[in-house]
Amino acid sequence: AELRGNTARVDLTPPEQMHAPLGGYGERMNAPAQGVHDRIFGKALVVTDGSKKFAMVTADMIGFPPPFKQAVVDRLSDRGWTTDNIMLLASHSHTSIEMNAINPLNTFDIPQIGIHSPELFEFTVANFVRLITEADRELVPIRIGTASQHLSGWNRNRRGYDGIVDDALTVTRIDKTTGEPLVVLVNFTAHPTFMTGRQMMFSGGWPGHLQRTAEALIGDHVSVMYYNGAEGDQSPRSRPNSGDSRWEQAERYGRELGIIVAKDWHSITTQADVVFDFHRQKISLPGKSWHPDFLKTGGEEYGLSEAILTEMLPRMFPTETASGCLRLGDLVVVGVPGEMASSLGLQIKAATQKKTGATHPVIGGLADEWISYMLPPEAYDSGGYEASVSFYGRTLGPTIVDGAIEGASQLSAGK
Q1: In 3D, which of 193, 204, 251, 196 has the Cα closest to residue 226?
Q2: Which residues touch 77 (CB under 8 Å, ≥6 apart)?
Q3: Which of 266, 324, 369, 390 is at a distance of 20 to 30 A from 288, taking alpha carbons?
Q4: pLDDT digits (tens, 9 = 90+) for 18-29
Q5: What is each CA distance from 26 to 93, 112, 301, 390, in whole angstroms?
Q6: What residues have CB less than 8 Å from 402, skipping those under 6 apart?
Q7: Separation of alpha carbons 321 and 338, rounded Å
Q8: Nearest to residue 115, comparing CAs of 138, 99, 128?
Q9: 230 near 189, Cβ under 8 Å?
Q10: What is the spatial distance between Cα 33 and Cα 290, in angstroms, rounded to a whole number?
Q11: Ranges of the chain with pLDDT below 70
Q12: What is the pLDDT of residues 131-186, one digit of tens each?
């Protein structure tokens, strides 16, 4: 069947009078942003084959708390949208909306983890509803193609546990059949952490600069949608001659990566007759617990104690999650609900390629909800920051890997 699609974007930057806090660092103590360095956006791609449809949404945000997606779906259910045919993907910008400020389950009033704001929650949910609704209009015939390359030296393993990095850049070109560009999907794996807790303005970070640069170079009102990978232990490497300014380092990194994306885009061949499929695999989670080292790392940063966690984990963290996946031709996006170590992500990618035949499997990190960091058992045992904010014990990583691979295996195979 002929694939049709459309895109939309909304400005997610909260108005100044809302006094919205920035997420990403406990030291900010839920303080409101002090201005806007560059605006943050949500973007959506809707694709249909006439019998089923899917919405992929990217956002310049740190992540989504578990109740967020369901709130969006509840307002869209009368238009054929469900949890199964929507995937939300956050860039993980650390200069964007505080995740727990848009979490109705957060009733703890702890500044380090963010304080719930009903006004900000309503503002953000309403924008996502509008975004998907607008993308689901005036769909046009489309063509799709994907290419990948490895960018050595652009990211590093910040834990140093095993030195594994995922340095693949995957670019998907989606054009109208009339020839005009519609959407470019960009997957690259690294934390957007050039800025620290001392930079207090809204910004999309280097992913925001990447998207704007590639959009300007490609032109024709194209929309570039960035989504992260298994970035739980992956950090960016500063580009040469970036200067001492954190803002400049992020801009230089994003711009140079955006130039590479635009060059790749020109070399991609698109096809109209491609596989389109999606699936959502439910995953039962291990029992909730915290790492013995949590007080020395994550607990200290976020103002948590054992007494608080005893109350918080049952209230704010689910007992079940899911891995959504999407196939568009040779691209397969496998969603993971949080921050996964790159070694686990590479396992999923290899298994997905084997089971589906797709030549460009990628991880959609921070998909739909943030439940934890996800590490190999031996990395969890070794402790550190990532282990201290992993709340389902040492088997969480393998549990998510198995569920994600099972979900991807349900997709249609072939080309």
Answers
A1: 204
A2: none
A3: 324
A4: 999 999 999 999
A5: 15, 4, 5, 16
A6: none
A7: 10
A8: 99
A9: yes
A10: 31
A11: 161-162, 414-415
A12: 999 999 999 999 999 999 999 999 999 998 668 999 999 999 999 999 999 999 99
Between the alpha carbon of residue 182 and those of residues 58, 143, 212, 292, the distances in Å are: 15, 10, 15, 49
The token duo for 145 is 């193609």
Whole-number pLDDT of residue 301: 82
What is the identity of the amino acid at 168? A
What is the predicted pLDDT for the residue at 414?
A: 62
* Farthest-apart Cα atoms in the chain, separation: 61
Q: What is residue 303's predicted lDDT score, i.e. its pLDDT?
A: 85
Packed helices 66-76 and 118-135: angle between N→C axes, nearest 10 degrees? 50
Helix (H, G, I), strand (E, B) or coil at 328: strand
Token reading at 290: 């915290």
Angle of the 246-267 helix axis to the 205-218 helix axis, nearest 10? 40
- pTM exceeds 0.85 for this model: yes
Q: In Å, what is the CA distance from 241 to each residue of 127, 209, 238? A: 38, 17, 9
Closest CA to 302 of 24, 48, 83: 24
